[in-house]
Design a protein that fits this description.
Radius of gyration: 20 Å
Number of strands: 0
Helix content: 55-70%
Distance between the termini: 27 Å
Length: 175
């Protein structure tokens, strides 16, 4: 570290330029996230089952504390969806669509934390919502939608602390 950014003794604060203040709150990212979630739910009954969804439904009929390739959450959600609405692709894919919307909000929250204004936050949400990984993982039930919303909060926490320490906080489950 250079002397301009070295922590002041005993304070944990940096000398030199401080990070920007968080930007103003805006409803734009919420509109984008709701639109992404709604479009994923509208498209959910199309194209039939994905092979992984059939596996999750079968694993859900034989619930266990864990499996060789995954934890118990997705099969448990698949079983719950199949119990509530048997054979419904919309019910099966709803958790993935909601998590895709949450990922869009997380992108906008990180942009806000770095000082983005209303337009910047909405643009970040729009780019996050139209990315291939968000749309593909939000369309099918599976474990791949989790990395956005489940590893986003640890990165958001790290971004919030960017003015004091450059080392990421160790958080359980961070991707």
């Amino acid at each position: 570290m250079t002397s301009a950014t070295a922590p002041t003794a005993g304070t944990g604060q940096r000398r030199g330029p401080q990070p920007p203040a968080p930007g103003p709150r805006t409803p734009g990212p919420w509109v984008v996230a709701a639109t992404v979630t709604l479009l994923l739910l509208i498209m959910a009954p199309r194209y039939g089952y994905h092979r992984d969804e059939l596996y999750f439904l079968l694993a859900g009929r034989h619930l266990d504390w864990g499996y060789v390739d995954q934890g118990p959450l997705v099969p448990a959600l698949a079983r719950l969806a199949d119990t509530i609405a048997p054979g419904s692709l919309v019910a099966l894919r709803t958790p993935s669509a909601v998590l895709a919307g949450a990922a869009v909000l997380m992108v906008a929250a990180i942009a806000r934390q770095f000082g983005a204004g209303r337009g910047g936050q909405t643009l970040a949400a729009l780019l996050g919502g139209t990315s291939g990984i968000t749309l593909a993982s939000g369309h099918c039930a599976g474990t791949c939608v989790g990395p956005g919303p489940t590893s986003g909060p640890p990165r958001y926490v790290t971004a919030g602390d960017r003015g004091v320490d450059e080392t990421p906080w160790p958080v359980v489950g961070s991707g």
